[in-house]
Specification:
The longest helix has 59 residues. Helix 4 crosses helix 14. The N terminus is likely disordered. The protein has a single domain, classed as Growth Hormone, Chain: A (Up-down Bundle). The protein has 440 residues and is mainly α. Strand 1 and strand 2 form a beta hairpin.
């Protein structure tokens, strides 16, 4: 950093981006949690393809990451970090408006449906998928700015990994709150099979208002750019970011990490519902639901919430581990995440998957930190390219849903996908993250 940058107080911008990370986490998980209700509201006529269509919600969201990550990097160079964040927030408002339109259209035109093989799907469902892609695009561009900014901004008494973990903790607060918001606030704790499409309209309208207010506030805040983290306007980089092996292998690692994170976070409730319907779901003290703050939550919804809460707890803990290197944290987490997932398969017990959230908590910060290590002015471009790997959040849950349909609706063996992902993450932590070429 230059002397001028060392004198700049980045505390306020740091806090601002930590708050934005909350909205990214909240909307990402809320989007995934709509799978269960939408499966009932939109996909009652999907027949044997119900699980496949349900996982398309996550697919459309995470498809935005490889498509728009480069746009985020280009905007950061052209408009600066602040201008890029504001544009991303406005795109998010548009996406939430499309969500609202999907519900409105389905209620207004209930007979507007499309026949795909044996499935009969309302057109409103496909409008929702478009909204999922648009909001996912906004979340992508936000992260293209947030991740490198948190890594590089100089806040007294903190290090890069700690700042990412603090941002990640805020993100996890959003992911923890989201399942309760969807089940308890949006749907009032009613059973998923009783959800009506019309109930989706008001929540999306309120979210549009909230994000619009955030965009206005952001436009009035100071968010200084950080020199040395991105190419200047008109500057041509001498090398391709793909020439840095630790970044390339890190993109593959983030592919598997986001994939397995979303597999558990979005599909654990579907797995639990399957076992509950069969009468095979293990529930503590015979409980099949739990009342929290006068709202009744089913055990499957509670599992998803506890999984994301585990990620929050893990990030809060890892924020204090300044003496433990990110590669060591990543290796430890991968080993135990694989172990608990394997035990869940063997014992056919989704409660063991809840524990995996604790170990997934450190992975994003560790992988990103290791991937952009010593990249200098390539960092911003690398952050955009890094988002390509997030497509794992679209593909792996989709493959898992297809696998579940192929197994006559059984999710048990599909968790092998998660075990394989953890094994690659372990490889990256031990060997793949080594820097072999320095940026000039």
């Amino acid at each position: 950093m230059t002397q001028k940058q060392n004198q700049t107080n980045y505390l306020a911008p740091f806090i601002t981006l930590v708050v934005l990370f909350f909205f990214v986490g909240f909307l990402t998980t809320a989007n995934g949690q709509f799978q269960g209700p939408l499966k009932s509201a939109f996909l009652s006529g999907a027949g044997d393809l119900k699980n496949t269509f349900a996982t398309l919600i996550s697919f459309s969201w995470f498809l935005a990451y490889p498509v728009t990550g480069g746009i985020g990097s280009a905007w950061a160079t052209r408009y600066g970090y602040k201008g890029t964040l504001i544009r991303a927030l406005l795109i998010m408002v548009v996406g939430l408006g499309i969500f609202w339109l999907s519900s409105f259209y389905t209620v207004k035109f209930p007979e507007s449906k499309i026949h795909l093989a044996s499935a009969v799907i309302p057109w409103g469902y496909f409008i929702f998928l478009l909204g999922s892609f648009v909001v996912g695009s906004a979340a992508t561009i936000l992260q293209v700015v947030i991740n490198p900014y948190l890594t590089a901004c100089n806040v007294k008494g903190t290090q890069a990994v700690q700042r990412l973990n603090i941002g990640g903790a805020s993100n996890s607060v959003g992911t923890t709150v989201a399942p309760f918001f969807v089940t308890g606030i949006v749907f009032g704790g009613i059973a998923m099979e009783d959800v009506q499409v019309a109930q989706l309209q008001a929540p999306f309208m309120w979210l549009m208002v909230v994000i619009a207010i955030v965009a206005v506030v952001m436009s009035r805040l100071s968010l200084p750019d950080i020199q040395g983290t991105k190419a200047e306007k008109g500057e041509k980089l001498e090398k391709s970011v793909w020439s840095f092996s630790h970044l390339t292998l890190g993109i593959i690692a983030i592919f598997f990490y986001v994939g397995v994170e979303v597999c558990v976070g979005a599909n654990i409730n579907l797995y639990a519902l399957e076992l509950e319907n069969k009468g095979e779901l293990f529930s503590f003290f015979g409980l099949h639901s739990m009342t929290i703050f006068d709202v009744n939550f089913s055990i499957p919804a509670l599992m998803a919430t506890l999984y994301w809460a585990g990620m929050l707890a893990g990030r809060l803990i890892s924020g204090s581990l300044s003496r433990i290197s990110p590669d060591s944290q990543l290796a430890f987490a991968a080993v135990f995440a694989a172990l608990f997932t394997l035990l869940a398969i063997i014992l056919n017990n989704p409660w063991l998957l809840v524990v995996v959230g604790l170990f997934h908590s450190v992975m994003w910060g560790a992988i990103f930190t290791l991937s952009v290590n010593k990249l200098g002015k390539y960092t911003s471009v690398a952050s955009g390219v890094f988002m390509i790997g997030v497509i794992g959040g679209a593909l792996l849950p989709l493959f898992q849903g297809i696998f579940a349909d192929a197994m006559q609706g059984s999710w048990r063996l599909t968790w092998a996908i998660v075990v394989l992902g953890e094994i690659y993450i372990l490889y990256y932590a031990i060997w793949g993250c080594r820097v072999k070429q320095l940026a000039e």
